[in-house]
Amino acid sequence: AVPLVVAINTSTAAQNGMLIRDRIAMEEARNLDIVMFDKTGTLTKGEQGVVSVEIAGDWDERRVFEVASGVEGDSEHMIARAIRTAAEERGVSRTSVSDFENLRGRGVKATVDGSTVHLGGPNLIQTLGIERSADVAVFADEAGANAQSVVYLVRGESEIVAAFALADVIRDESRRAIDALHEMGIEVAMLTGDSEDVARAVADELGIDQYFAEVLPEEKDTKVAQLQSEGKRVAMVGDGVNDAPALTRADVGIAIGSGTDVAIESGDIILVDNNPLDVVRLVRLSKASYRKMQ
Ligand code: ADP
Ligand code: MG
Predict the structure, then answer these.
(1) Same-domain status, 129 and 204
(2) Can you tell me the distance from the alpha carbon of 187 to that of 150, in angstroms, rounded to the nearest whole number?
(3) Cα gap 212→128, rounded to integer Å
(4) Choosing a second label site near 58 at 20 to 30 A (CA), which of 89, 119, 204, 236?
(5) What is the mean pLDDT of the chain?
(6) Domain co-membership, 175 together with 233
(7) Is there a single domain that holds both residue 162 and residue 180?
(8) Distance from the alpha carbon of residue 78 to the mean position of ligand 2, in angstroms
(9) How does DSSP assign 12-60, residue by residue?
(10) Best residue among 118, 119, 151 to mutate for probing ligand 1, ranked by most atoms within 8 Å of CB
């Protein structure tokens, strides 16, 4: 039988917008040293929009959007949606592509008119070993300073033909959640596949103690392990497929309810209302409930 305290606890949790899949994790939540948040879709709304475009090759803006929206055609990523929307807004239709490939945590790739086109962020540029032109680097630096993410359209393996700056919105509740965690003596960290300067801007804005940027999907859980090896009890909060191993690795894995199925299946606790403040409620509820049990 379920102990009475835990039964009460679980229904209280449900009233507080959280679903508990693992009761041991719920109990662990009162002992946390650090909470690590994924950036995109967790601290931010993940509703990105294209705010500016830098043309860097001989394709005009129309061609750039035809190709970019074509290459993103089969991707469910928030950035892909933003690029397709921007193309539609410009009245541009997608070019047809073949051999679509999802380069997880980096971007996408497809064949257009017989040649390869890549579209992706800083991790892609690094993987391909591309040196950006001065103009593109300035564009990216300015965007980054404004916490805008940049993705690059690459013709072949090395020619950047355009760069897009995308703006996302920080959730109102993120700041309050981080302040409240600090008041409880809990550190806050952030993890993202996005660039160093975007990560820094968001971390500064929110008062985050420590961040990891340009992290590849296969490295996310090792960042959680790194914190654990420092003797810390870690909660991970995430929404994406890429966050799943980190959610599993963490002492308390917290999935955002609107996140991907894989993230939800990997979480110990699900935040039904997608509200970072519910992480604070979770810690409070854990402290209150398990104190009673002792
Ligand atoms: P995050 O860690 O920011 O939640 P991901 O791990 O999904 O996001 O992606 C990491 C980075 O890879 C993104 O910030 C972006 O630069 C790039 N990327 C991923 N998917 C795409 C895509 N479909 N189109 C363009 N860029 C992408
Ligand atoms: Mg995410």
Answers:
(1) no
(2) 29
(3) 21
(4) 89
(5) 92
(6) yes
(7) no
(8) 9
(9) HHHHTTEEES-HHHHHHGGG-SEEEEEIIIIIB----EEEEEEE-SSS-
(10) 151
Q: Which one from 38, 168, 221, 251 is the annotated catalytic residue?
A: 38
Here the CATH number for the domain that contains residue 190 is 3.40.50.1000
pLDDT (tens digit, 9 = 90+) per residue, 212-249?
A: 999 998 899 999 999 999 999 999 999 888 899 999 99
Task: Let me know whether 23 and 53 are in one domain.
Answer: no
Q: Which residues contact 182 (CB under 8 A, 6 or more apart)?
A: 188, 207
Residue 285 to residues 23, 85, 255: CA-CA distances in angstroms? 12, 41, 17
pLDDT value at 70 more than 50 = yes
Ligand 2 center from residue 115 Cα (angstroms)? 31
Query: Is residue 175 domain-shared with residue 289, that is, in the same domain?
Result: yes
40 and 123, same structural domain? Answer: no
Q: What is the CA radius of gyration of the chain?
A: 21
Domain residue limits at 233: 4-45+170-293
The CATH number linked to 105 is 3.40.1110.10
- Catalytic, 209? Answer no
Q: Is the shortest distance between the CB of 40 and ligand 1 below 6 Å? A: yes
- ipTM of the predicted structure? 0.96
Q: Which residue's CA is minimally distant from atom 1 of ligand 1?
A: 193
Interstrand relation of 107-112 and 98-103 (parallel, antiparallel or unpaired): antiparallel
Q: Indicate if ligand 1 lies below 6 Å from the C-beta of 38.
A: yes
pLDDT in tens, 114-152: 999 999 999 999 999 999 999 999 999 999 999 999 999
Q: What is the pTM of this model?
A: 0.86
Residues 74 and 161 in one domain: yes
pLDDT in tens, 73-116: 878 888 999 999 999 999 999 999 999 999 988 999 999 999 99
Residues 286/269, Cβ–Cβ less than 8 Å? no
Asked whether residue 101 falls in the same domain as residue 178, the answer is no
